[in-house]
């Protein structure tokens, strides 16, 4: 009698274990799907993370966009959400590209990313400005 029950018990144990494993995978995927998407959110213009929360880029610390205006102390960038932001810079602001850059590298039409402190009026005082590579607007063939 014991020899007949043992194979049934082993098969039942495998089925229950497999079901529990599958259920655990589905539960974990459902629970973490939002957090995983935030981690992989692209840092394009107007998107990204701030303190691991969505909406950071363009909201203060980090801003990415195309330069649409420039003077000797500030630039204005167009954000991806069709808004704009004024970025102030000084001689102490690091302006970066593949090699070190200067304020003369900040040109209208160039795409940049800034890191700095948000001001009360919504502008940003930059600690660094990084020149971003040109992104082709042609569709991929």
Derived from helix and strand composition plus strand pairing, the structural class reads alpha+beta
Radius of gyration: 26 Å
User: What name does CATH use for the topology of the largest domain?
Assistant: OB fold (Dihydrolipoamide Acetyltransferase, E2P)
What is the overall pLDDT average?
A: 75
Counted by DSSP, the helix tally is 1
Q: What is the β-strand count?
A: 8
- Give the N-to-C terminal Cα separation: 68 Å
Helix content: 25-40%
CATH superfamily caption of the largest domain: Copper binding periplasmic protein CusF
Major beta sheet, strand line-up: 3-4-5-8-7
In the predicted model, the low-confidence regions spanning at least 5 consecutive residues are 37-59
Overall number of domains: 2
Series of secondary-structure elements, N-terminal to C-terminal? HEEEEEEEE
**Based on CA inertia axes, which overall geometry fits?**
rod-shaped
CATH architecture of the largest domain: Beta Barrel
The CATH class name of the largest domain reads Mainly Beta
Q: Sheet with the most strands?
A: 5 strands, mixed, barrel
Describe the protein's architecture and organization.
With 141 residues, the chain is an alpha+beta fold. It has two domains: 1-40; 49-131, Copper binding periplasmic protein CusF (OB fold (Dihydrolipoamide Acetyltransferase, E2P)). The protein has one helix spanning 2-39, and strands at 49-50, 53-54, 62-70, 74-78, 84-88, 94-96, 111-118, 124-131. It is rod-shaped, with a radius of gyration of 26 Å. Mean pLDDT is 75; it is low at 37-59.
């Amino acid at each position: 009698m014991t020899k007949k029950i043992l194979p049934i018990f082993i098969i039942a144990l495998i089925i229950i274990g497999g079901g529990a494993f599958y259920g655990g995978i589905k539960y974990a995927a459902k629970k973490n799907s939002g957090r995983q998407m935030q981690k992989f959110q692209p840092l394009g213009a107007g998107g990204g993370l701030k303190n691991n929360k969505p909406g950071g880029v363009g909201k203060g610390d980090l801003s990415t966009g195309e330069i649409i205006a420039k003077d000797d102390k500030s630039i204005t960038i167009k954000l991806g959400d069709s808004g704009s932001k004024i970025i102030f810079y000084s001689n102490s602001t690091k302006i970066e590209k593949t090699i070190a850059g200067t304020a003369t590298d900040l040109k209208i039409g160039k795409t940049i990313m800034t890191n700095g402190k948000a001001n009360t009026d919504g502008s940003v005082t930059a600690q660094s400005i990084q020149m971003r590579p040109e992104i082709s607007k042609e569709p991929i063939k």
